[in-house]
Design a protein that fits this description.
2 domains; mainly alpha; 57% helix; 6% strand
Length: 94
């Protein structure tokens, strides 16, 4: 296994440049790429690598952050609905 560190800035073209500097053999040898869930990173990988989707590995921090945000959104919606019915069931649950 080879680990390569590629620091991408906020530009999608920087990610593409990383892939363009690799030979076809090097690209085929990549088993997985750990990456942030930021859309430009994802798009540059999908556009630059065959089987890019299958080789993406998102870090646990960002997965949990996204999940927590979704859970909090549902909690707020449910809280508003319950408050409209006169229930304080979800008050102080954050």
């Amino acid at each position: 296994m080879t680990v390569t560190k590629a620091l991408w800035n906020s530009l999608r073209k920087t990610g593409k440049r990383f892939f363009k500097t690799r030979t076809p053999e090097q690209l085929r040898a990549i088993d997985a790429i750990a990456m942030d869930m930021w859309e430009p990173y994802v798009l540059s990988m999908l556009e630059s690598m065959s089987l890019g989707r299958e080789k993406m590995v998102f870090d646990k921090f960002h997965i949990m952050k996204k999940m927590d945000k979704g859970v909090d959104k549902v909690r707020k919606e449910e809280h508003r609905a319950l408050m409209a019915l006169g229930s304080n069931t979800l008050s102080k649950t954050k």
